[in-house]
Design brief:
The protein is mainly alpha-helical.
Length: about 60
Amino acid sequence: MKENRKCYGRPPGKKKTAKIEIVIEPDLKAEFMELLHSEGKYASVEICTWIRNYIKMTKEGNE
C-alpha cells in the first residue's frame, strides 16, 4: 500500500516523547534491517507509518 504522503519521522518542532521497544530474534532483525537499508528506509519511520495506518484503519472500521 503506497501513500502519496511521505513520512520522515517527527514533524518539525515536535519532540520525541515516547518509544516502543520490541524483542525479536537477531536473524529476523538483521534481515529486516538489511531489506530496509536496501530500500533506503529507516526502521523507526516504517514502524511509525505502520502504527499510524493501523490506528487509522481500526478507527475507520469502528465508524
